Sequence to fold (273 residues):
Amino acid sequence: MRNKILLLGSGELGKEVVIALQRLGQYVIAVDNYKNAPAMQVAHEFEVIDMLDGKELDKIIAIHKPDFIVPEVESIRTERLYEYEKQGYTVIPSAKAANFTMNRKSIRDLAAIDLELKTAKYKYAKSYNELVEGVKYTGMPCVVKPLMSSSGKGQSVIKNELDIKKAWDEALRGSRGDLMEVIVEEFISFDYEITLLTLTQNNNNTLFCPPIGHRQERGDYQESWQPMDMEESHLKTAQLMADKVTKALGGSGIWGVEFFIGKNRCILFRAIT
Fold:
């Protein structure tokens, strides 16, 4: 069956998505805020709009009437996705999932407050003074990140008071979209970190791929491998946490659920994509 798929975001990853979908016989319209984006080069059609403009998004949906809407980047007016679901459109994996996972505040509060999963201590800051208070709460060293960013942009480590202003400025420079807010979280001393690929299905069954291990040096990514050799009890705990958070977000799809395995063998939820 040939479906019409609207891809919101047309970067390099989006290009791979388009190629994969075309191999399955699907029709893809690639959307982004600049011309000749990578995914546009291989899609059947493309549109150039300001994806932070809800009215422009509404217009594109009305014109193309897609069978599926696939958000691929963070800088989208994601709250509009709820309205599209109400209108009968299918958002992959769901409007809630897209809205929450593209904003660190929403997903962290869901995990730590609503689901009571163990995470690093954290605070939010909309100003430099609020960041100073957040650093006092988490203690130093701590990590500062924009609430909306990608590929680690805007992230820095605060080791002393002189680093706070630099971290604030760096976070604002690295922020995507129009959200000028940061998260400051305690620095976790961990043995290793993993990503657990989690597959949710329409029949409410959840499957897990073997864990993926990662290595960083001085905060810079170096390599990943699969499977990561880890204790079975730790893997089971991570799977239970991943199942809990993906069920809360809803929808079917493949999720990358990230965890820190702490020095004291404590499992901490880190993020989800």
DSSP finds eight helices and 15 strands in the chain. The longest strand covers residues 190-200. The chain has three domains: 4-92, 121-186, 190-272. The helical segments are 12-23, 54-64, 80-86, 95-101, 104-114, 128-138, 162-174, 232-249.
